[in-house]
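Q: I have 146 residues here and want to know how they pack in 3D. Can you give me a structure?
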Amino acid sequence: MKKAALAAILFATVTTVAFAQAPASQQKQTKTAQSAPKSVEQRADDITAGMVKNLRLQPDQARKLQEINRTSMRHAEEARTKLKSDPRKLAQQMDIISQTRLSQIKDVLTEQQFAQYQSRREEKMGVPREAQSNPASRQGGYQEQY
C-alpha cells in the first residue's frame, strides 16, 4: 500500500516537473511577449486580421475596417487617458465610440457578413443565445462557426 502511494506521488512529481520545464528559447519568447504590450495600431490590426479571416473580407473591405478599427482604438485610448478620473463620463464616451464603430462596420460589410459579425460579437459579450439579434442563429439554419 505504501509503495503504491509513494509511486503515485513520485509519478505526479515527475510529470509536473517535466511539463514545467520549457526550453529556454520558449521562456524568453513568453517573457518578451508579456513585457512588450502591443500598440494601439497592433491591437487594431489583430482585430482586423481576425475579421478578415472569419468574415472572408475583400481587400477593400479589409482596408476600410482596418482604418475604422485603428481610429476607434485611438479614440478609446484617448478617452481612457483623458477621463480616467471620471468613470461615468468614460463609460459614456466608450459607448459613443462603440456605437460609432458598429455603425461604420455595418456600412462596410454585406448583410450576411454583418449578421455573422454581430452574432460573434454578442456571443463574446455573453448575450444569451435566445436574446441574440441574429434570427438565423435561432432558426437552425446554416451558419458558419468561426
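Q: Anything worth noting?
A: Helices lie at 2-20, 24-35, 40-55, 59-82, 87-108, 111-125, 135-138. Residues 99 and 105 are 10 Å apart (CA to CA).
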